[in-house]
C-alpha cells in the first residue's frame, strides 16, 4: 500500500492550549481536500470506509474534536464558538475543502462557516442533522435526564440505535469506550447550547457554495424544504439506513460523495 493511502496521525495545539488529533491520507497534490467532522462524542475512525474509498483521488482529513477520539479531554470549550474555532484552526493548512459534518458535527461546520466565512471551502456536506427547516423535530424527551441517571445503559442503547444493521460486539465495545472519554457534564453541555434552531437555517441559507444534505427518513421533510427554500441544494435520502448511514451503506454513501466532489468548483492558488 502506498504511503499516501495510510492515514497519518498529527497533533496540533489550539489557541487555548488543547492538543487535538487529526488524520490525513491520500495524494498530497490533490486539488480537493475532503474533511470529516464526527458527531456528538464520536471518534473519527467511524469514517474508516470513507477514507479507504475517497483517498484514491482526494486528500482526506478528519478531526477528533476536543474530548473525542484521540484528542485531549480538557475541562472547557464544549460550546459552538470554541468548537467552530477548533475547526478553523484544524483547516489552516488547507484550501479547496469539502467540509463534511455528521449529526452535531453538521451544526458545528455551519457555525464554522458562519463565524469564519467560506473562503477555504469548496462546498459542504451536512449528514443527518436537523438544520432548522420545518418540521420541528419531536422533543428529545428525557434523554438528558436519563443520561445523568444511568449513563452506561443510555449510551449503550444510543450507540446501537445509530445503526440499522448490527455491528460486531467488539466494535460496539470500542466505540462505547471512546464515547465515554468526555465527562458527563461536558457531553451534556454540547447538547444544551440554547441556540434557536432558526440559527442553523440562517447559516445554511447564507452559505453560497455547493451544499449537499444527506439524510435518513427522520429528516426527509426538512431536506425537501431546504431544497425548496435554498436554491442549488442537493439532497440524498438513505431511507433504509440508521443515523450512521455512511456505516450502514458505505458504498452508496461513498458514491454520492464522489459524485458531489466532482461538481464543486475549485479555486486556483
Q: How much of the polypeptide forms β-strand, as a percent range?
A: 15-25%
Overall average pLDDT: 96
Q: Give the count of helical stretches.
A: 11
Percent in helix: 25-40%
Major sheet size, sense and barrel closure = 8 strands, mixed
What is the helix/strand order? EEEHEHEHEHHHHHEHEHH
**Name of the CATH homologous superfamily:** Alpha/Beta hydrolase fold, catalytic domain
Low-confidence stretches: none
CATH architecture: 3-Layer(aba) Sandwich
Number of domains: 1
Query: Can you tell me the CATH class?
Result: Alpha Beta
Shape designation: globular
Q: Say what the CATH topology is.
A: Rossmann fold
Trace the largest sheet across and list its strands: 1-2-4-3-5-6-7-8
Q: Pairing-aware structural class of the strands and helices?
A: alpha/beta
What's the gyration radius in Å?
17 Å
What's the β-strand tally?
A: 8
* Cα distance spanning the termini: 30 Å
Amino acid at each position: 500500500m502506498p504511503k499516501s493511502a495510510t492515514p497519518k496521525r498529527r497533533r496540533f495545539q489550539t489557541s487555548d492550549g488543547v492538543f487535538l488529533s487529526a488524520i490525513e491520507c491520500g495524494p498530497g497534490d490533490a486539488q480537493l481536500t475532503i474533511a470529516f467532522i464526527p458527531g456528538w462524542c464520536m471518534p473519527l475512525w467511524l469514517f474508516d470506509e470513507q477514507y479507504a474509498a475517497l483517498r484514491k483521488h482526494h486528500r482526506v482529513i478528519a478531526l477528533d474534536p476536543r474530548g473525542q477520539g484521540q484528542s485531549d479531554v480538557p475541562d472547557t470549550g464544549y460550546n459552538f464558538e470554541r468548537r467552530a474555532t477548533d475547526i478553523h484552526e484544524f483547516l489552516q493548512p488547507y484550501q479547496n475543502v469539502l467540509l463534511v459534518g455528521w449529526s452535531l458535527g453538521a451544526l458545528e461546520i455551519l457555525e464554522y462557516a458562519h463565524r469564519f466565512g467560506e473562503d477555504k471551502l469548496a462546498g459542504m456536506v451536512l449528514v443527518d442533522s436537523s438544520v432548522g427547516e420545518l418540521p420541528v423535530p419531536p422533543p428529545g424527551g428525557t434523554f438528558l435526564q436519563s443520561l445523568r441517571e444511568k449513563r452506561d445503559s443510555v449510551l449503550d442503547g444510543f450507540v446501537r440505535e445509530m445503526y440499522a444493521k448490527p455491528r460486531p460486539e467488539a466494535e460496539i465495545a470500542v466505540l462505547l469506550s471512546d464515547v465515554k472519554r468526555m465527562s458527563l457534564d461536558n457531553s451534556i453541555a454540547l447538547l444544551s447550547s440554547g441556540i434557536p434552531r432558526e440559527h442553523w437555517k440562517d447559516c445554511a441559507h447564507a452559505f453560497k457554495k455547493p451544499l449537499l444534505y444527506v439524510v435518513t427518513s427522520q429528516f426527509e421533510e426538512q431536506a425537501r424544504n431546504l431544497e425548496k427554500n435554498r436554491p442549488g441544494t442537493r439532497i440524498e435520502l438513505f431511507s433504509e439506513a440508521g443515523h450512521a448511514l455512511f456505516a450502514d451503506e458505505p458504498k452508496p454513501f461513498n458514491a454520492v460523495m464522489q459524485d458531489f466532489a466532482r461538481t464543486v468548483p475549485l479555486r486556483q492558488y
